[in-house]
Write a structure and sequence with these properties.
InterPro entries: Cat_transpt. It is found in: Cell membrane. Keywords: Cell membrane, Ion transport, Membrane, Transmembrane, Transmembrane helix, Transport. The chain is mainly α and about 240 residues long. Among the domains are: about 70 residues, no CATH class; about 80 residues, Helix Hairpins (Orthogonal Bundle). It is about 60% helix and about 0% strand. A hairpin with a 2-residue loop joins strand 1 and strand 2. The radius of gyration is 20 Å and the shape is globular.
């Protein structure tokens, strides 16, 4: 994505024909800014009157802080208000943003914005009854769809198991524990303030989740792509009942 953007800027400066962006770059840019706008709007609206966060601020302060906290769950992980004072609904919004994470092959954790977008395209195609998934004039390969589903489901499994384990280890509420786990999985760095009070085993668990979130999705996606092999036969088709 960075290479294509640099090439596009260089061509624009030279006045030559602008090269087209790949499907990956288009999906990444559109999804990134879509999540950015959605995060800013939701966080600002949900925390607007919260006396522990945006409530006491002036109008410009509310807008600026809301924009900052709508963007930070998927980037740097900084905070200017007490995350523990946020409404549980806002924490859940942050959980979703942190779980998605940033762009592929970047330093952010999570399942990546491209994976999230591919899942949305697959769901949309299934709702419409389309046999194949078409995105911006291109057809998505079935292997890419399976890789996206695998990465997302394994990410959900990691977060679910870690959350259940931490709930068993401590007496903290679900929303705070889930926030800590998803923040670790997304390597975000945000916290509601309970990490220091967790037992040593719980803190070690968060470290493991952080390592999985940083390395796991990239390694898994690469492994799935490299081990792909052609099957020389097909088994009879069967259609189990779904839903």
């Amino acid at each position: 994505m960075v290479f294509e953007t640099t090439r596009w800027i260089a061509a624009r400066r030279r006045g030559t024909r602008l090269p087209g962006w790949s499907l990956h770059t288009k999906i990444t840019v559109l999804t990134y800014f879509g999540l950015l706008v959605a995060g800013i709007m939701l966080v600002t609206a949900l925390e607007w009157g919260n006396p522990g966060t945006l409530g006491p601020l002036s109008l410009p302060g509310k807008l600026l802080t809301g924009a900052f906290h709508g963007a930070t769950p998927r980037t740097a992980g900084f905070n200017s208000v007490d995350m523990g004072a946020m409404h549980p609904t806002t924490l859940l919004v942050n959980d979703a943003l942190m779980f998605v994470g940033g762009g592929s092959a970047g330093t952010a954790g999570g399942i990546k914005v491209t994976t999230f977008a591919l899942l949305a395209f697959v769901v949309a195609a299934e709702i419409r009854g389309q046999p194949t998934v078409h995105v911006m004039g291109r057809r998505l390969a079935a292997t890419v769809q399976r890789q996206a589903i695998t990465v997302a489901l394994l990410g959900v499994a990691v977060v679910l198991v870690a959350t259940m384990t931490l709930l068993w280890m401590s007496d903290r509420p679900l929303d705070a524990v889930l926030f800590e786990v998803v923040s670790a999985f997304g390597t975000v760095g945000l916290s509601t303030g309970i990490t220091a009070s967790l037992p040593a085993t719980g803190q070690l668990l968060l470290i493991v989740v952080m390592f999985i979130g940083r390395v796991g999705p990239i390694t898994l996606a690469s492994a799935l792509a490299l081990r792909e092999h052609e099957r020389r036969y097909e088994l009879p088709e069967e259609r189990p009942i779904v839903g």
